[in-house]
Design goal:
215 residues; 3 helical TM bundles of succinate and fumarate reductases; 8 helices
Length: 215
């Protein structure tokens, strides 16, 4: 009989960690798909105000718009809880992480730090965005234009666009590494691909933002 000292350790904590990581990746992937679809729908204003208003009216009359916000925010909270386990919460821990990141000068570490920071920013800005939209239904191009025309709101949405696109695509890249979809020899190519995707989507968001100023 094998001695107790040679028996394998319990896989409970490790299994729980894998479960949390899987939940983080699944919810993050779902949110990334939603972000692309959402920004494409909002970008319909580039085809004309009538197209945007018709699409918004269709989503509201079907009840999708009313369900969409709370559901997405709930998924985001689950994602934040799953991914936030590894994010330092104390100021001393933040200082230590920042010092070690600067010392290592490793691109992957910088990406992780950027993802963690944008995630915390998104929790605040995303909540404000959803609240401002859902408490002022129906959605119309005129209302969006009036809100964005205010300098504070314009800066707010520029920050939101930059944070959400960067966080989403870096998250997809890091999930690909974590689950083996992105092998080591392909990391540089995958990094350029995902960062280019973030840039294209971010540019679409900024162009859309400017377009609302002239509705």
């Amino acid at each position: 009989m094998a001695s107790l000292s040679k028996l394998p350790l319990s896989s409970g904590p490790r299994s729980a960690a894998v479960t949390w990581d899987l939940l983080s990746s699944l919810t993050g992937g779902a949110l990334a798909v939603y972000i692309v679809a959402h920004m494409a729908l909002v970008g319909s204003v580039l085809l004309g105000v009538g197209v945007y208003d018709t699409m918004a009216e269709a989503l509201e009359s079907s009840g999708v718009a009313q369900i969409d916000g709370p559901l997405v925010f709930a998924v985001f909270l689950v994602h934040f809880l799953a991914a936030g386990r590894k994010v330092p919460l104390r100021w001393t821990e933040h200082t230590l992480v920042w010092r070690q990141t600067r010392m290592l000068r490793h691109s992957e570490t910088w990406l992780w730090l950027g993802q963690a920071l944008t995630g915390m920013v998104l929790l605040l800005l995303g909540g404000i965005h959803m609240w401002s939209v859902l408490t002022d239904l129906p959605i119309t191009a005129a209302k969006s234009s009036e809100r964005i025309a205010h300098p504070a709101w314009f800066v707010f949405y520029v920050l939101l666009i930059c944070a959400v696109t960067g966080h989403a695509f870096v998250g997809l890249y890091r999930s690909g590494i974590k689950w083996g979809a992105v092998v080591r020899r392909k990391r540089a190519t995958a990094r350029r691909f995902f960062l280019a995707g973030a840039g294209v989507l971010g540019l679409l968001g900024l162009i859309t933002l400017v377009r609302f100023l002239y509705v």
